[in-house]
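for ur thesis appendix - Lycopene beta-cyclase. copy paste whatever u need, i formatted it the way the template wanted (i think)
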Amino acid sequence: MADYEVVIIGGGAAGLTLAHRMGGVNERRGRPLRTALLEPPSGPHTPPPRTWCFWEAEGGLWDPLLAARWRDLTVLGPDGAEYRSPADPYLYKMLRSTDVAAHVRDRADEHLDQRELYVTGLVDGPDHATVHATAPDGTAVRLRARWVFDSRPPPVPQDGRTTLLQHFRGWFVRTHRDAFDPGAAVLMDLRPPQPRTGVAFGYVLPLSSREALVEYTEFGRSALTTAEYDVALTDYCTRAGLGDVEVTAAEQGVIPMTDASFPTRTGRRLFRIGTAGGATRPSTGYTFSGVARQTAAVARALAEGRTPVPPVPYRARHLAMDAIMLRALDSGRVAGADFFTRLFAANRLGDVLAFLDGTSRLPGELAMGLTTPLGAMSRTTLDHLWYSLRTRAGGIPGRFRAPGRPSPR
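the 3d part is after this line
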């Protein structure tokens, strides 16, 4: 049995970011923490290469690895009306998962073991947790760790009222003429035909004057087939005036958008991070900024010798607002294209991005709320409050509680 102080399960954005931060933890402590990063062997369980997009100020953790960045962003309404402005104080950024993985691998020191294992079970304990796994050759492996951080996406919890899917397919395209401004991106283009409920939009992230990532996205209850996405992307490229394009690569995915709760602590020594730990913002599907805040907090706690419980990176009021918005979209009370057009047309872009990132302040949020479809959102808010009161009256599902500690009130 191998002994570690920290085991990180999963080599996605959350697992790689925490593994990367362990170098800083060891520098601060002076006594390195032996760490293992566990990923499934290459094969059907390996996620395909993908891009991670997010916004933050200049000088972020991954800036040296960025594939692209954009300061000027555009939102297009259903009628083609254009709302373009700088994203100040933010930049919209793109990372490639392969670049992050290679960077973490290349900078790993003797205190970080990267192991290819199928994790089959976790056993909690008062002093350590045990990770049960299988090696590629079928050999059973056990690892013992003081702290275990699991970033594998779990099934969507059943305690949520509304669950939508953000589902998408993107083409990396090349044009035969200059067609893109490398310094400006289309964040949301609401001109595609809209579903009965939810919303559909395209976006364009230029990589050069002739190359870009063009994606078609929907918020809805069910995903499309690859053929249906390709039809939508072909139509969107025509709407965007790109003409014939050469598709050099593609990416596709589904992100749950739900008001369900994702507890970050599941045992004395067991924690969840990333999407598994609630780092995905329910109203947007963006995860990377939540991962950054969550792993930074874990790293600080490890460096200071505290119990490293990952925080949920969003305020309770923001999660309540997200639940209301998801309900309004799913019920059809608001038309998604109208909702987002009003939001971006009436507010400074940087303020909207701050709200969507969970860093805005209440007075600005209230003012922003007045620019959305007020009647429909008010009715949905009352509906949400009534549902919450009935749910509380019926009992609150239990959460993990460490022995000897009073339950929270």
